[in-house]
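Run: sequence + iron/sulfur cluster -> complex structure.
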Amino acid sequence: MTSPPLGLYLHIPFCRQRCDFCAFYLEIHRENRAEAFVRSLKHEITLSAQQHVAANRPVQSVYFGGGTPTALAATQLTTILSEIRTHLSLTSDCEITVEAHPSTISEEGLAQLYQAGVTRMSFGAESMEDGDLARIGRPGSVSETVTAVARARAAGFTNINLDVMYGLPGQRLESWQRTLGHCLALTPTHLSCYALTVEEDTRLAANIQRRRSPEPDEGLQIDMDEAAQRILGDAGYEQYEVWNYAKPGYACRHNLLYWTNGEYLGCGPSAQSYLDGTRFGNVADLTVYETALTASRLPIEDRTKLSKDEQLRDAVIFGLRLIRGIPSQHLHRHAQNYGHATVTAQLLAQQLIEEDGAYSRLSARGRLQADTIAGLLY
Ligand code: SF4
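>> structure
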């Protein structure tokens, strides 16, 4: 039997500065640290290919995330890609995504990425109103996003994603609708719309505690989510996951792996992997990460082998987020395994989960409470 393809995720842990709401593991970009990191990451790719089951598996998607991958020079990103091609076997139609902060990528850099085989650019626009960006401490301006998208097109990219957020401090329903309208004018193939969540130990959390910033308004976020579903649906985007919308044929292949319980290898500090029924994660510390690789050790700090029931649990919880849903028999088998039959019946009675023929999925209202429902079914 041939092994199914897997995805490769590269965590680039650098940003020029930290946005107020961000709790990701990252370091402030420094040239010498970036150089050393690129060497370590290439070494990790080599070791992973030698030591993991990943070695003989076709790779269907490569995703440079972070952090800000484009905090690295385009030449550094392309040398990482060459290393990947040397040690792993990419499918001929491999989706290769680079996340970019619009103010960190030049015309020349985009051309280099395109020529190296990157197929998809994902820009962290966050909002198309400068006032919103200022209130979340996100550097850069809307005009830089517009310029970056135009440059990406000029470089040859046709598959472009914009990440935007709603429920931002001071953002109103009308300004969110304007942001969506400005995004649509840029004709991306894909839009990810995330509700702002307040993470512990962020500047935003401290600002809310000191009453310098308002708390997110859940009711308003629900209205904004519904507006996104309506506006993007009318514009021909299919919502295929709770946060994600795509023109037909442009769903993100890499992210679909996460929601369909597919397998992926993560490289870089704090990157997570799921291979052969085992979840494992890298250490979230650049110095410890580099020290391990200098000693030719993989920087893995935890590893959990999932039982068949745990694999089904994860498949159900992630799969319900998909608009196409999951086979209903999987939901009911998981409910029996974990003693969730009553709560599942309640979610169905409240029409937060809907069943249609042989498939189950979150309803439109259920999608607005996706994280709570995931908690109930865990
Ligand atoms: S650019 Fe992205 S990863 Fe970097 S601090 Fe801002 S939100 Fe976090």
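>> summary
The chain has a mean pLDDT of 95. The longest strand covers residues 89-100.
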